[in-house]
Write a structure and sequence with these properties.
By secondary structure, this protein is α+β, with helices and mostly antiparallel strands. It has 4 helices and 4 strands. It is an enzyme of class 3 (hydrolase).
């Protein structure tokens, strides 16, 4: 059990470092006057500050809204940390670690910038996806893998 906790927290730290490093590179580029980078015809690196929740929903322009979102994020991160502490297998440990690392990266942004730094910009066939970051990838991928683990991989007790 202890090894699962350590393993999960290592994943959290890895995602946090990847998030910090990627945002540092992007912010440095744009601080030096850099412009948006077209990586492929459907992928750009841009700079956006998301003052809302996921995918720009529930935009928080007032300081009260920022503090409210920050408070909710801290509470949810504490819950994820608790679930990580109670992880039953390696998959759950990795998933909760990814989610926690991503959440902490976005909390850091809200504290420092008052918004989450987003820069990954995908678009194709007239459809433009919401701009996101590495922390968001950790949260979403961790949640999807956790759902797969809970539905398909974790052994269920016999209810009969």
């Amino acid at each position: 059990m202890k090894n699962l906790r350590i393993f999960g927290f290592v994943w959290a730290v890895l995602f946090l470092i990847a998030d910090f490093a990627s945002k540092y590179i992007v912010l440095s580029w744009f601080d030096k006057g850099g412009e948006a980078i077209t990586v492929t015809p459907f992928f750009n690196i841009i700079l956006a500050f998301n003052r809302g929740v996921s995918f720009g929903m529930f935009h928080a322009d007032s300081p009260h809204g920022v503090y409210m979102l920050l408070g909710v994020a801290v509470i949810l991160s504490a819950l994820v940390g608790t679930w990580l502490w109670q992880a039953e297998n390696k998959c759950q440990s990795i998933c909760f670690g990814m989610i926690l690392g991503g959440a902490l990266g976005n909390i850091y942004d809200r504290v420092i910038y008052g918004a989450v730094v987003d820069f990954l910009d995908f678009h194709a066939f007239g459809y433009h996806w919401y701009t996101f970051n590495i922390a968001d990838c950790g949260i979403v991928i961790g949640a999807i893998l956790l759902l797969i683990d809970l539905v398909f991989l974790t052994k269920k007790e016999d209810f009969n």
